[in-house]
Design a protein that fits this description.
Layout (H helix, E strand, L loop, with lengths): L15 H20 L6 H13 L2 E2 H8 L3 H13 L3 E5 L7 E5 L1 H21 L5 H22 L12
Antiparallel strand pairs: 1-3, 2-3
Helix pairs in contact: 1-5, 2-4, 2-5, 3-4
Length: 163
């Protein structure tokens, strides 16, 4: 390893942005491993958990809650609908839009999803104080804000940028 006096002088794989990306990938892999016995990936489990918490919502609202595009959200809904875990229902206030809701089987599966999330968050936060987590969250929110400004005028190819 080289003797780097400042993070900005470090090679790309040692910079804070790279560390954040590696950490995000590792967190995703940990969730995927813990959710695998339920037959769900992280995106599917997140959608199911979100619906369980919110109740029936539109696909657009669900996409916004999950930070995904509408098409990616629709694909996840299709998979969960085929498994009988969610259903599309007519929206009584707007016939042009469907509501997405959990089925009884989906609601039953949401309970272990929430438990896996709670347990894994506990494992991930081990040895990190609440104050440290708050500082980290504030810094990540600031980075997200900076990225929003950067990405305002950037167009990504379809499917890029979705989880």
């Amino acid at each position: 390893m080289s003797d780097v006096s400042h993070e900005l002088d470090a090679p790309p794989w040692q910079r804070v942005e790279s560390t954040i990306m590696r950490t995000a990938r590792a967190i995703r892999r940990a969730y995927e491993a813990r959710l695998a016995p339920l037959g769900l990936n992280l995106s599917q489990a997140s959608l199911l958990g979100c619906l369980d918490d919110s109740g029936p919502v539109t696909q657009t609202q669900l996409a916004a809650s999950l930070g995904l595009g509408r098409a990616a959200t629709g694909a996840i809904i299709d998979v969960l609908e085929r498994r009988g875990l969610v259903e599309r229902r007519p929206n009584p206030s707007d016939r042009r839009v469907w509501l997405v809701a959990t089925t009884a089987a989906g609601a039953d599966l949401a309970a272990p999803v929430h438990e896996i999330d709670r347990a894994l968050r506990g494992d991930l936060r081990a040895g990190i104080t609440r104050q440290e987590r708050q500082v980290l969250a504030q810094l990540l929110v600031r980075l997200q804000s900076n990225l929003s400004g950067i990405l305002t005028n950037v167009s990504l190819p379809p499917g890029k940028g979705d989880l």
